[in-house]
Specification:
alpha/beta, 8 strands, 21% helix, 5-stranded mixed beta sheet, 3 helices
């Protein structure tokens, strides 16, 4: 699936990009608006009738793709949604490095120790995955 320019949310040089749903937030800081960034609301917006993560944030300056899932507490399902997003956009973003963010309302320790999550960490690289409760804030 291709991402069309008109589907991203506005300015590509904003200082802050916020992805939010039901009180959960991912905040991406773009210092001085120096990087070219596009933000897409995927699930139910661009991607319809199939599973996908909630947001995709592209730092075109560094060729980084941030797949973002805002979830209640089901980490295994969040992993499935992130993997689906990666599959859907794999071809159009093949030159991008993928990063994964899961923002939960409640993180259960046993979910982070599950076979599914540990396999995801091994496959994608533990250093490229962040899971936090309520909010993740980072600099692109």
């Amino acid at each position: 699936m291709e991402l069309r320019k008109e589907e991203y949310s506005g300015d590509t040089h904003k200082k802050v990009y916020v992805s939010t749903e039901k009180g959960r937030k991912h905040i991406a800081n773009n210092p001085a608006g120096r990087y070219e960034v596009r933000q897409y609301r995927l699930d139910g917006n661009i991607v319809k009738n199939m599973m996908c993560c909630d947001y995709l944030l592209l730092n075109d300056s560094y060729m980084n793709a941030y797949y973002i899932e805002l979830k209640g507490s089901d980490i295994a399902h969040a992993v499935e949604q992130l993997e689906a997003g990666l599959r859907i956009f794999k071809e159009s973003l093949k030159n991008y490095t993928a990063f994964f963010r899961i923002v939960t309302s409640k993180t259960r320790t046993q979910e982070l120790k599950s076979t599914k999550f540990r396999r995801f960490q091994r496959t994608m690289g533990k250093e490229r995955i962040i899971v936090k409760t309520n909010e993740i804030e980072e600099t692109l």
